[in-house]
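Reproducibility note. Readers wishing to regenerate the assembly model reported in the main text can use the exact inputs given here. Chain order matters: entities are listed in the order in which they were concatenated for prediction.
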Amino acid sequence: MYEGVVQDLIDELGRLPGVGPKSAQRIAFHLLQADPADVRRLADVLIEVKQRVKFCSICFNVSEEEQCRICRDPRRDPTVLCVVEEYKDVVAIERTREFKGRYHVLGGAISPIDGIGPDQLRIRELLPRLADGTVVEVILATDPNLEGEATATYLTRMLRTLEVRVSRLASGLPVGGDLEYADEVTLGRAFAGRRSAE
Amino acid sequence: MYEGVVQDLIDELGRLPGVGPKSAQRIAFHLLQADPADVRRLADVLIEVKQRVKFCSICFNVSEEEQCRICRDPRRDPTVLCVVEEYKDVVAIERTREFKGRYHVLGGAISPIDGIGPDQLRIRELLPRLADGTVVEVILATDPNLEGEATATYLTRMLRTLEVRVSRLASGLPVGGDLEYADEVTLGRAFAGRRSAE
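Running the prediction on these inputs yields the following C-alpha coordinates for the assembly.
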Protein backbone atom coordinates (compact mmCIF):
# COMPACT_ATOMS: atom_id res chain seq x y z
CA MET A 1 0.00 0.00 0.00
CA TYR A 2 2.84 2.40 0.84
CA GLU A 3 5.89 3.33 -1.19
CA GLY A 4 8.49 0.53 -0.83
CA VAL A 5 10.83 1.80 1.84
CA VAL A 6 8.03 3.36 3.88
CA GLN A 7 6.35 -0.04 4.07
CA ASP A 8 9.70 -1.58 5.07
CA LEU A 9 9.97 0.92 7.91
CA ILE A 10 6.41 0.20 9.06
CA ASP A 11 7.18 -3.53 8.98
CA GLU A 12 10.38 -3.15 11.00
CA LEU A 13 8.72 -0.89 13.58
CA GLY A 14 5.80 -3.33 13.85
CA ARG A 15 8.24 -6.02 15.03
CA LEU A 16 9.04 -4.06 18.20
CA PRO A 17 7.23 -5.20 21.35
CA GLY A 18 4.02 -3.31 22.06
CA VAL A 19 4.03 -1.59 18.66
CA GLY A 20 0.95 -2.65 16.69
CA PRO A 21 0.33 -1.91 13.00
CA LYS A 22 -1.39 1.41 13.76
CA SER A 23 1.40 2.63 16.03
CA ALA A 24 4.03 1.49 13.54
CA GLN A 25 2.29 3.58 10.87
CA ARG A 26 2.05 6.56 13.18
CA ILE A 27 5.73 6.37 14.12
CA ALA A 28 6.74 5.91 10.47
CA PHE A 29 4.78 9.00 9.38
CA HIS A 30 6.30 10.95 12.22
CA LEU A 31 9.79 9.89 11.11
CA LEU A 32 9.03 10.79 7.48
CA GLN A 33 8.45 14.36 8.51
CA ALA A 34 11.05 14.49 11.26
CA ASP A 35 14.36 16.29 11.02
CA PRO A 36 16.81 13.93 9.27
CA ALA A 37 19.34 14.59 12.06
CA ASP A 38 16.89 13.27 14.67
CA VAL A 39 16.25 10.11 12.70
CA ARG A 40 19.98 9.69 12.14
CA ARG A 41 20.54 9.95 15.90
CA LEU A 42 18.05 7.18 16.56
CA ALA A 43 19.67 4.98 13.89
CA ASP A 44 23.13 5.67 15.33
CA VAL A 45 22.16 4.86 18.88
CA LEU A 46 20.59 1.59 17.71
CA ILE A 47 23.86 0.56 16.12
CA GLU A 48 25.93 1.86 19.02
CA VAL A 49 23.91 0.02 21.63
CA LYS A 50 24.53 -3.29 19.88
CA GLN A 51 28.22 -2.51 19.45
CA ARG A 52 28.95 -1.18 22.90
CA VAL A 53 26.61 -2.99 25.25
CA LYS A 54 28.02 -6.26 26.45
CA PHE A 55 27.11 -8.44 29.37
CA CYS A 56 29.20 -8.38 32.53
CA SER A 57 31.51 -11.40 32.62
CA ILE A 58 30.75 -11.95 36.31
CA CYS A 59 27.04 -11.31 36.81
CA PHE A 60 25.73 -10.98 33.19
CA ASN A 61 24.29 -7.60 33.91
CA VAL A 62 24.28 -5.14 31.00
CA SER A 63 27.60 -3.30 30.83
CA GLU A 64 29.73 -1.23 28.51
CA GLU A 65 32.84 -2.67 30.17
CA GLU A 66 34.11 -6.22 30.68
CA GLN A 67 32.64 -5.98 34.19
CA CYS A 68 29.57 -3.99 35.14
CA ARG A 69 29.47 -0.97 37.42
CA ILE A 70 28.16 -2.98 40.35
CA CYS A 71 30.71 -5.78 40.09
CA ARG A 72 33.49 -3.18 39.82
CA ASP A 73 32.27 -1.29 42.90
CA PRO A 74 34.33 -2.40 45.95
CA ARG A 75 31.71 -0.95 48.33
CA ARG A 76 29.14 -3.55 47.27
CA ASP A 77 28.79 -6.39 49.75
CA PRO A 78 30.25 -9.56 48.19
CA THR A 79 28.54 -11.84 50.73
CA VAL A 80 24.98 -11.32 49.43
CA LEU A 81 23.98 -12.28 45.90
CA CYS A 82 20.61 -11.30 44.45
CA VAL A 83 19.48 -13.52 41.57
CA VAL A 84 17.19 -11.75 39.09
CA GLU A 85 15.73 -12.58 35.70
CA GLU A 86 16.67 -9.51 33.69
CA TYR A 87 18.71 -6.33 33.62
CA LYS A 88 15.57 -4.30 34.21
CA ASP A 89 15.11 -6.08 37.54
CA VAL A 90 18.58 -4.91 38.58
CA VAL A 91 17.55 -1.35 37.76
CA ALA A 92 14.28 -1.71 39.68
CA ILE A 93 16.08 -3.03 42.76
CA GLU A 94 18.82 -0.41 42.54
CA ARG A 95 16.12 2.24 42.55
CA THR A 96 14.95 1.09 46.00
CA ARG A 97 18.48 1.72 47.42
CA GLU A 98 17.70 -1.15 49.83
CA PHE A 99 20.16 -3.68 48.46
CA LYS A 100 23.91 -3.27 48.86
CA GLY A 101 25.04 -6.69 47.63
CA ARG A 102 25.77 -8.00 44.16
CA TYR A 103 23.65 -9.53 41.42
CA HIS A 104 23.39 -12.52 39.18
CA VAL A 105 21.29 -11.98 36.06
CA LEU A 106 19.80 -15.20 34.70
CA GLY A 107 18.69 -13.76 31.37
CA GLY A 108 15.11 -14.96 31.76
CA ALA A 109 13.06 -17.54 33.63
CA ILE A 110 12.36 -21.22 33.16
CA SER A 111 9.42 -21.54 30.79
CA PRO A 112 8.94 -24.93 29.13
CA ILE A 113 6.20 -23.48 26.90
CA ASP A 114 8.75 -21.07 25.38
CA GLY A 115 11.45 -23.76 25.24
CA ILE A 116 13.48 -22.11 28.01
CA GLY A 117 15.00 -24.59 30.41
CA PRO A 118 17.83 -24.17 32.96
CA ASP A 119 20.43 -24.60 30.21
CA GLN A 120 19.17 -21.53 28.33
CA LEU A 121 19.74 -19.40 31.44
CA ARG A 122 22.90 -18.34 33.31
CA ILE A 123 22.25 -20.96 36.00
CA ARG A 124 25.36 -23.02 35.46
CA GLU A 125 27.41 -19.82 35.80
CA LEU A 126 25.96 -19.22 39.28
CA LEU A 127 27.69 -22.20 40.94
CA PRO A 128 31.32 -21.06 40.53
CA ARG A 129 30.35 -17.78 42.17
CA LEU A 130 29.32 -19.69 45.30
CA ALA A 131 32.33 -22.02 45.34
CA ASP A 132 34.78 -20.10 47.55
CA GLY A 133 32.36 -19.50 50.41
CA THR A 134 32.37 -15.67 50.17
CA VAL A 135 28.66 -15.61 49.46
CA VAL A 136 26.61 -16.44 52.56
CA GLU A 137 23.15 -15.55 51.25
CA VAL A 138 21.47 -15.92 47.87
CA ILE A 139 18.28 -13.87 47.50
CA LEU A 140 16.03 -15.26 44.78
CA ALA A 141 14.31 -12.22 43.32
CA THR A 142 12.62 -13.75 40.31
CA ASP A 143 9.23 -12.43 39.19
CA PRO A 144 6.24 -13.48 41.33
CA ASN A 145 4.63 -15.31 38.41
CA LEU A 146 4.54 -18.90 37.18
CA GLU A 147 7.89 -18.82 35.38
CA GLY A 148 9.61 -16.86 38.14
CA GLU A 149 8.32 -19.23 40.81
CA ALA A 150 9.40 -22.28 38.80
CA THR A 151 12.88 -20.78 38.42
CA ALA A 152 13.12 -19.99 42.13
CA THR A 153 12.00 -23.50 43.04
CA TYR A 154 14.58 -24.98 40.68
CA LEU A 155 17.34 -22.82 42.14
CA THR A 156 16.28 -23.55 45.73
CA ARG A 157 16.65 -27.28 45.08
CA MET A 158 19.95 -26.82 43.30
CA LEU A 159 21.42 -24.73 46.11
CA ARG A 160 20.14 -26.98 48.90
CA THR A 161 23.40 -28.93 49.06
CA LEU A 162 25.53 -25.80 49.41
CA GLU A 163 26.50 -23.99 52.59
CA VAL A 164 24.53 -20.90 51.70
CA ARG A 165 21.34 -19.32 52.98
CA VAL A 166 18.70 -19.10 50.24
CA SER A 167 15.90 -16.55 50.65
CA ARG A 168 12.96 -15.25 48.62
CA LEU A 169 11.43 -11.81 48.41
CA ALA A 170 8.35 -11.38 50.60
CA SER A 171 4.95 -11.78 48.98
CA GLY A 172 2.09 -9.65 50.21
CA LEU A 173 -0.04 -6.61 49.65
CA PRO A 174 1.54 -3.90 47.54
CA VAL A 175 2.12 -0.71 49.55
CA GLY A 176 -0.44 1.94 48.68
CA GLY A 177 -2.88 -0.62 47.29
CA ASP A 178 -6.41 -1.39 48.41
CA LEU A 179 -7.01 -4.68 50.21
CA GLU A 180 -10.28 -5.25 48.39
CA TYR A 181 -8.57 -5.07 45.00
CA ALA A 182 -5.83 -7.59 45.86
CA ASP A 183 -6.21 -10.91 44.06
CA GLU A 184 -6.86 -13.93 46.25
CA VAL A 185 -3.39 -15.44 45.83
CA THR A 186 -1.70 -12.22 46.95
CA LEU A 187 -4.13 -11.80 49.83
CA GLY A 188 -3.59 -15.45 50.83
CA ARG A 189 0.17 -14.92 50.84
CA ALA A 190 -0.22 -11.76 52.86
CA PHE A 191 -2.08 -13.78 55.51
CA ALA A 192 0.41 -16.63 55.46
CA GLY A 193 3.33 -14.22 55.80
CA ARG A 194 1.77 -11.99 58.46
CA ARG A 195 4.14 -10.28 60.92
CA SER A 196 3.51 -9.50 64.57
CA ALA A 197 2.31 -5.92 64.88
CA GLU A 198 4.77 -3.58 66.61
CA MET B 1 19.89 4.99 35.97
CA TYR B 2 20.92 2.83 33.03
CA GLU B 3 24.32 2.39 31.44
CA GLY B 4 25.02 5.42 29.21
CA VAL B 5 24.11 4.23 25.75
CA VAL B 6 21.12 2.22 26.98
CA GLN B 7 19.70 5.39 28.53
CA ASP B 8 20.39 7.22 25.25
CA LEU B 9 18.41 4.59 23.39
CA ILE B 10 15.51 4.82 25.86
CA ASP B 11 15.54 8.61 25.48
CA GLU B 12 15.51 8.46 21.69
CA LEU B 13 12.72 5.88 21.62
CA GLY B 14 10.72 7.94 24.11
CA ARG B 15 10.65 10.80 21.60
CA LEU B 16 8.60 8.75 19.15
CA PRO B 17 4.86 9.48 19.12
CA GLY B 18 2.83 7.19 21.34
CA VAL B 19 5.91 5.71 23.00
CA GLY B 20 5.91 6.54 26.71
CA PRO B 21 8.81 5.98 29.12
CA LYS B 22 7.66 2.44 29.98
CA SER B 23 7.30 1.38 26.33
CA ALA B 24 10.63 2.97 25.48
CA GLN B 25 12.25 0.89 28.22
CA ARG B 26 10.51 -2.24 27.04
CA ILE B 27 11.58 -1.70 23.43
CA ALA B 28 15.15 -0.88 24.50
CA PHE B 29 15.43 -4.10 26.53
CA HIS B 30 14.02 -6.05 23.64
CA LEU B 31 16.64 -4.53 21.32
CA LEU B 32 19.44 -5.26 23.81
CA GLN B 33 18.68 -8.95 23.54
CA ALA B 34 17.66 -8.97 19.89
CA ASP B 35 19.77 -10.37 17.07
CA PRO B 36 22.24 -7.63 16.04
CA ALA B 37 21.24 -8.17 12.39
CA ASP B 38 17.60 -7.32 13.20
CA VAL B 39 18.59 -4.12 14.98
CA ARG B 40 20.94 -3.24 12.12
CA ARG B 41 18.06 -3.69 9.65
CA LEU B 42 15.89 -1.27 11.62
CA ALA B 43 18.74 1.27 11.77
CA ASP B 44 19.38 0.89 8.03
CA VAL B 45 15.75 1.36 7.05
CA LEU B 46 15.58 4.49 9.21
CA ILE B 47 18.50 5.98 7.32
CA GLU B 48 17.23 4.74 3.97
CA VAL B 49 13.77 6.19 4.46
CA LYS B 50 15.22 9.65 5.05
CA GLN B 51 17.56 9.32 2.09
CA ARG B 52 15.15 7.89 -0.41
CA VAL B 53 11.77 9.28 0.48
CA LYS B 54 11.11 12.64 -1.07
CA PHE B 55 7.94 14.56 -1.62
CA CYS B 56 6.31 14.60 -5.05
CA SER B 57 7.11 17.87 -6.80
CA ILE B 58 3.52 18.15 -8.01
CA CYS B 59 1.26 17.04 -5.17
CA PHE B 60 3.72 16.73 -2.21
CA ASN B 61 2.71 13.14 -1.64
CA VAL B 62 5.45 10.84 -0.34
CA SER B 63 7.47 9.45 -3.22
CA GLU B 64 10.76 7.76 -3.99
CA GLU B 65 10.78 9.49 -7.40
CA GLU B 66 10.61 13.14 -8.42
CA GLN B 67 6.89 12.58 -9.03
CA CYS B 68 4.72 10.17 -7.07
CA ARG B 69 3.04 7.06 -8.43
CA ILE B 70 -0.34 8.78 -8.66
CA CYS B 71 0.89 11.88 -10.47
CA ARG B 72 2.81 9.66 -12.91
CA ASP B 73 -0.24 7.49 -13.64
CA PRO B 74 -1.91 8.70 -16.88
CA ARG B 75 -5.11 6.85 -15.99
CA ARG B 76 -5.79 9.16 -13.04
CA ASP B 77 -8.39 11.82 -13.79
CA PRO B 78 -6.64 15.21 -13.97
CA THR B 79 -9.90 17.14 -13.62
CA VAL B 80 -10.55 16.25 -9.98
CA LEU B 81 -8.16 17.23 -7.22
CA CYS B 82 -8.53 15.91 -3.68
CA VAL B 83 -6.88 18.09 -1.02
CA VAL B 84 -5.77 16.16 2.07
CA GLU B 85 -3.70 16.95 5.14
CA GLU B 86 -1.20 14.11 5.12
CA TYR B 87 0.24 11.22 3.14
CA LYS B 88 -1.67 8.78 5.33
CA ASP B 89 -4.93 10.34 4.15
CA VAL B 90 -3.92 9.58 0.55
CA VAL B 91 -3.37 5.96 1.57
CA ALA B 92 -6.72 5.81 3.37
CA ILE B 93 -8.57 7.23 0.36
CA GLU B 94 -6.70 4.98 -2.08
CA ARG B 95 -7.83 2.02 -0.01
CA THR B 96 -11.48 2.85 -0.70
CA ARG B 97 -10.84 2.61 -4.49
CA GLU B 98 -13.58 5.25 -4.85
CA PHE B 99 -11.42 8.11 -6.01
CA LYS B 100 -9.80 8.16 -9.45
CA GLY B 101 -8.52 11.74 -9.47
CA ARG B 102 -5.31 13.29 -8.18
CA TYR B 103 -4.21 14.66 -4.83
CA HIS B 104 -2.74 17.68 -3.19
CA VAL B 105 -1.10 17.02 0.17
CA LEU B 106 -1.02 20.08 2.42
CA GLY B 107 1.39 18.66 4.97
CA GLY B 108 -0.91 19.38 7.91
CA ALA B 109 -3.81 21.61 8.90
CA ILE B 110 -4.13 25.18 10.07
CA SER B 111 -3.64 25.23 13.83
CA PRO B 112 -2.82 28.60 15.40
CA ILE B 113 -2.18 26.91 18.75
CA ASP B 114 0.67 24.91 17.17
CA GLY B 115 1.90 27.90 15.18
CA ILE B 116 0.74 26.42 11.88
CA GLY B 117 -0.80 28.96 9.54
CA PRO B 118 -1.47 28.79 5.79
CA ASP B 119 2.18 29.66 5.04
CA GLN B 120 3.42 26.55 6.82
CA LEU B 121 1.29 24.38 4.53
CA ARG B 122 1.42 23.65 0.80
CA ILE B 123 -1.47 26.03 0.16
CA ARG B 124 0.39 28.49 -2.04
CA GLU B 125 1.45 25.55 -4.24
CA LEU B 126 -2.19 24.64 -4.86
CA LEU B 127 -3.01 27.73 -6.95
CA PRO B 128 -0.70 27.08 -9.94
CA ARG B 129 -2.27 23.64 -10.22
CA LEU B 130 -5.65 25.25 -10.82
CA ALA B 131 -4.39 27.94 -13.22
CA ASP B 132 -4.80 26.25 -16.60
CA GLY B 133 -8.43 25.22 -16.09
CA THR B 134 -7.83 21.45 -16.27
CA VAL B 135 -9.12 20.94 -12.75
CA VAL B 136 -12.90 21.39 -12.55
CA GLU B 137 -13.46 20.14 -9.01
CA VAL B 138 -11.48 20.44 -5.80
CA ILE B 139 -12.59 18.05 -3.06
CA LEU B 140 -11.56 19.25 0.38
CA ALA B 141 -10.89 16.07 2.36
CA THR B 142 -9.33 17.53 5.49
CA ASP B 143 -9.98 15.84 8.83
CA PRO B 144 -13.46 16.41 10.37
CA ASN B 145 -11.98 18.15 13.41
CA LEU B 146 -11.33 21.73 14.43
CA GLU B 147 -8.07 22.15 12.50
CA GLY B 148 -9.35 20.32 9.44
CA GLU B 149 -12.52 22.40 9.34
CA ALA B 150 -10.55 25.63 9.72
CA THR B 151 -8.30 24.60 6.86
CA ALA B 152 -11.27 23.69 4.65
CA THR B 153 -12.96 26.99 5.42
CA TYR B 154 -9.78 28.89 4.58
CA LEU B 155 -9.41 27.03 1.28
CA THR B 156 -13.08 27.48 0.40
CA ARG B 157 -12.69 31.24 0.73
CA MET B 158 -9.44 31.27 -1.20
CA LEU B 159 -10.88 29.25 -4.08
CA ARG B 160 -14.13 31.21 -4.26
CA THR B 161 -12.81 33.55 -6.95
CA LEU B 162 -11.71 30.70 -9.21
CA GLU B 163 -13.74 28.87 -11.86
CA VAL B 164 -13.67 25.60 -9.95
CA ARG B 165 -16.23 23.58 -8.04
CA VAL B 166 -15.23 23.14 -4.40
CA SER B 167 -16.76 20.26 -2.44
CA ARG B 168 -16.40 18.72 1.00
CA LEU B 169 -16.66 15.12 2.11
CA ALA B 170 -20.07 14.24 3.56
CA SER B 171 -20.46 14.33 7.33
CA GLY B 172 -22.78 11.85 8.96
CA LEU B 173 -23.10 8.62 10.83
CA PRO B 174 -20.25 6.17 10.34
CA VAL B 175 -21.37 3.03 8.54
CA GLY B 176 -21.74 0.14 10.95
CA GLY B 177 -22.03 2.45 13.95
CA ASP B 178 -24.85 2.76 16.45
CA LEU B 179 -26.97 5.89 16.29
CA GLU B 180 -27.14 6.15 20.08
CA TYR B 181 -23.35 6.28 20.34
CA ALA B 182 -22.93 9.06 17.78
CA ASP B 183 -21.89 12.38 19.32
CA GLU B 184 -24.36 15.24 18.98
CA VAL B 185 -22.35 17.14 16.36
CA THR B 186 -22.15 14.11 14.10
CA LEU B 187 -25.82 13.32 14.62
CA GLY B 188 -26.72 16.97 13.96
CA ARG B 189 -24.74 16.88 10.71
CA ALA B 190 -26.38 13.62 9.73
CA PHE B 191 -29.79 15.36 10.09
CA ALA B 192 -28.70 18.46 8.23
CA GLY B 193 -27.27 16.40 5.38
CA ARG B 194 -30.15 13.92 5.12
CA ARG B 195 -30.88 12.45 1.68
CA SER B 196 -34.25 11.51 0.25
CA ALA B 197 -34.83 7.80 0.83
CA GLU B 198 -34.79 5.73 -2.35
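We highlight two features of this model. Chain B touches chain A through 53 residues (CB under 8 Å). DSSP finds eight helices and six strands in chain B.
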